Amino acid sequence: MGNGAVRAARVASASSFGRTGVQDWLVQRLSAVVLLAYTLFLVIFFLRHPQLSYMEWRELFATSAMRLFSVLALLALASHAWIGLWAVTTDYLTTRLLGSRATLLRLLAQCAVLLLIFGYLGVGTLAIFR
User: Fold this and answer.
1) What digits encode the pLDDT tens for the residues 14-52?
2) How many domains does the chain have?
3) CA angle, 129 as apex, 125 and 130 as ends, to 5°?
4) What CATH number does residue 83 fall under?
């Protein structure tokens, strides 16, 4: 089987995150690592600052490194959520379970998820840079 036949045999979906399932899987795993690192950093920060004041919190987020880390975590969360919810909607909102309206319901659910994710990205970015 030639390289062109392999490409032709792949099934593409306009609503998936990556071009292939392997890319989606890799993004899902990498985003989980970023989210784990961010969560661990915050937990350790809270443990080291038991009487955390607003000024200490503000100083932490005033640094470029923390803002960059926060934006990276926000993007990781958005991609992780999209891939996971895309998988759920394509697995469970099917014609077998919902009949002829399944495609429309799946599309509406995916659009709602995208709107929420973009909204969260916008609000999160504003919060980070204010």
Assistant:
1) 556 666 889 999 999 999 999 999 999 999 999 999 999
2) 1
3) 115
4) 1.20.1300.10
